[in-house]
Design a protein that fits this description.
This protein is mostly helical. 57% of the residues lie in helices and 11% in strands. A three-stranded antiparallel sheet has the order 1-3-2. The longest helix has 25 residues. The protein starts with 16 loop residues before the first helix and ends in a 6-residue tail after the last helix.
């Protein structure tokens, strides 16, 4: 006989820091994505937008993007193809390897990245206003400490 859900003694859901961090992160992402869409960069809110975050001034070999993003080479190929199609990135020959291609931002991609940076700074400014400068700095430091600490560190 299978017990009904109301017959099972379920443990209570607890309030914890992980849930709060998740909620704030989700809220940040919703605000960031809405601002990107308002700026005409809806493509940046999709999975392919993660590619842009990995590109630097000189670009990145396409073969390296899979490891940087933690996705398959096939997924990278699809993302880059999509970004090339809308003029955000381009593939250029790798001077170190004639068979390889460097993925780099176009002027359109660089402009989108600049817009995304302005949006991030605007959100950060609002958070600083809500918390106050000292509390915001303390939050940044606390988050940095948590990131630096391994799971076995106290």
């Amino acid at each position: 006989m299978v017990k009904k859900l109301d017959e099972i003694d379920l443990p209570p859901l607890i309030d914890h820091i992980g849930w709060r961090l998740t909620l704030v992160s989700r809220r940040w992402k919703v605000e960031f994505d809405a601002a990107l869409i308002a700026q005409g960069h809806d493509w940046m809110t999709q999975a392919q937008g993660a590619v842009v975050g990995q590109l630097r001034n000189a670009g990145v070999p396409q073969g390296d993007l899979a490891g940087l993003l933690g996705i398959s080479k096939q997924a990278v190929q699809q993302h880059v193809d999509g970004l090339v199609a809308i003029g955000v990135v381009e593939r250029v020959p790798d001077p170190a390897d004639a068979r390889a291609r460097i993925v780099q931002l176009t002027a359109k991609g660089a402009a989108a990245l600049a817009d995304s940076n302005m949006i991030k700074l605007a959100i950060e400014s609002r958070y600083r206003s809500v918390l106050g400068a000292d509390a915001f700095t303390a939050l940044e430091r606390a988050l940095d400490r948590l990131m630096a600490a391994g799971p076995d560190e106290e």
